[in-house]
Amino acid sequence: MTEDFVQTPEVQALLDRASGVESDAGDARLKAITRDLVEAIMKAIVKHDVSESEFWAAIKYFQDSGDEFGLIVPGVGLEHFMDLVMDARDAEAGRSGGTPRTIEGPLYVAGAPLVEGEANLTDDADDTDTLYMNGRVAGPDGEPVEGAILHVWHANSKGFYSHFDPTGTQSPFNNRRRIRIGPDGRYAFHSRMPSGYSVPPGGPTDRFMKALGRHGNRPAHVHFFVEAPGYRTLTTQINFGDDPFAGDDFAFATREGLLPVPNRQGDSAYIAFDFELQRAEVSDEEHFSARVRAEA
Ligand code: MBD
Ligand code: FE
């Protein structure tokens, strides 16, 4: 049996009816996407000779792993793929320049304290080195960006994020801030050094990665959104260039230009990093994508 089986009139009619393309009601775009996705699954089933038992094991996997979908999506490369798609669309539209985007990941929390000046991100005790990070937020001509807000979030020295910490021991916004940037475009903050992240051991993502012969580790990293009136909101992160997983990130978030090596001096580590924003072409670009995010 070959994939041509999916092209038989019976299966094609099934796809038409199942995706609602024969009905005038409903959403045409949703119908078309549903039809293509279901057809792609059918082709994979035929191509790989998926048995009935394997099929139901896969369905059970999806049913059970809902809480970790936000990890599975970057783990299989789809979240990074969206960056590649957005980069390619930008290139087609003749847009380039600025700090590269890279994935948000599933661990942002809205509503972090809004602070000004040299900011401390860390509320909780954490016996590790101190990270000092500073730099500029500028536009395409090097102009300081006025009215910028830098959203920063990272893990603690155990690799756990506040709000998502399985040990339940972190304050709500530990290592999370929104920093209002002054008219000179300069920012500076310090915090307790993050460690790399690992997916929950034994969980759905971990089991999937192991079955693929992979792992679920990320290098130590710091996430950012940068938003400012008149500029395009940037989603990015820096990954520590000297981390053992800097070249082997399970989530594919590391990118050239986003891998600074911390300058480590005794109990302190320093990173200088400048952000360059693109100008917004439409006001929608000044805002975040419509992803549903945790709130606290
Ligand atoms: C993270 O901390 C992260 O940044 C991503 C992208 C995926 C899982 C955990
Ligand atoms: Fe992260």
Automatic annotation (TrEMBL):
SUPFAM superfamilies: Aromatic compound dioxygenase. Residues 27-94 form the Catechol dioxygenase N-terminal domain. Its cofactor is Fe(3+). Its EC number is 1.13.11.1. Residues 103-278 form the Intradiol ring-cleavage dioxygenases domain. One of its GO terms (biological process) is catechol-containing compound metabolic process. InterPro entries: Catechol_dOase_N (IPR007535), Intradiol_dOase_C (IPR000627), Intradiol_dOase_core (IPR015889), Intradiol_RC_Dioxygenase (IPR050770). Keywords: Dioxygenase, Iron, Metal-binding, Oxidoreductase. GO terms for molecular function: catechol 1,2-dioxygenase activity; ferric iron binding. It holds the Pfam family Dioxygenase_C. Gene3D superfamilies: Aromatic compound dioxygenase. It is an enzyme of class 1 (oxidoreductase). Belongs to the intradiol ring-cleavage dioxygenase family. This is Catechol 1,2-dioxygenase.
